[in-house]
């Protein structure tokens, strides 16, 4: 995932881009001879996977950009896994540590609230969390 200092898209813009892409992809799939049931099942699986993926609040995206933090796909996958594990344990606001990065995540909304490099934390004190996951 590459987050740059340039302009960020709003949720509505991202959703519009995603839906346009889905319409194009869905049309080409049905042309390839997939049955309605196969298309429906594939769409349900994809929707479930997307619901499990963390989102970044505007504040968190700004923090990543300001601190020049770029997540690799592997780190993002681990962040998603840590968020899922925290939610399964009943943690609402979790500190998720991935390598040298620290994320505060609201597990109910699957949203990263803030992000930082652990070397930037003054005293290594995190407040307003009810659990931590080290991935």
Can you offer a commentary on this structure?
This protein has helices at residues 11-31, 36-52, 58-66, 73-88, and strands spanning 55-56, 93-98, 101-106, 111-117, 131-134. With 135 residues, it is an alpha/beta fold. The chain folds into two domains: 8-52; 54-135, YaeB-like fold (2-Layer Sandwich). A five-stranded mixed sheet has the order 1-4-3-2-5. A hairpin with a 4-residue loop joins strand 3 and strand 4 (111-117). The protein starts with 10 loop residues before the first helix and ends with a strand. The model has no long low-confidence stretch (mean pLDDT 81).
Summarize this entry quickly.
By secondary structure, this protein is α/β, with parallel strands linked by helices. Helices cover 47% and strands 19% of the residues.
Would you list the SSEs in sequence order as H and E? HHEHHEEEE
Strand content: 15-25%
CATH architecture label name of the largest domain? 2-Layer Sandwich
CATH class of the largest domain: Alpha Beta
Low-confidence stretches: none
CATH topology of the largest domain: YaeB-like fold
Mean pLDDT: 81
| Global structural class | alpha/beta
Largest sheet: 5 strands, mixed
**Radius of gyration over C-alpha positions, nearest whole angstrom:** 17 Å
Task: Determine the number of helices (DSSP H or I, runs of at least 4 residues).
Answer: 4
Task: Order the strands across the largest sheet as they lie in space.
Answer: 1-4-3-2-5
Shape field: globular
Strands, count: 5
| Overall helicity | 40-55%
Terminal CA distance: 18 Å
What is the number of domains?
2
């Amino acid at each position: 995932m590459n987050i740059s200092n340039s302009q960020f898209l709003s949720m509505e813009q991202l959703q519009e881009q995603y839906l346009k892409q889905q319409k194009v992809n869905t049309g080409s799939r049905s042309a390839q001879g997939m049955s309605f049931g196969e298309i429906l099942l594939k769409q349900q699986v994809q929707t479930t996977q997307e619901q499990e993926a963390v989102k970044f609040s505007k504040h968190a995206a700004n923090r990543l950009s300001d601190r020049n933090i770029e997540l690799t796909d592997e780190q993002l996958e681990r962040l998603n896994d840590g968020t899922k594990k925290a939610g399964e344990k009943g943690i609402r606001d979790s500190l998720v540590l991935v390598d040298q990065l620290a994320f505060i995540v609201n597990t109910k909304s699957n949203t990263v609230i803030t992000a930082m490099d652990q070397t930037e934390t003054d005293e290594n004190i995190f407040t307003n969390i009810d659990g931590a996951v080290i991935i």
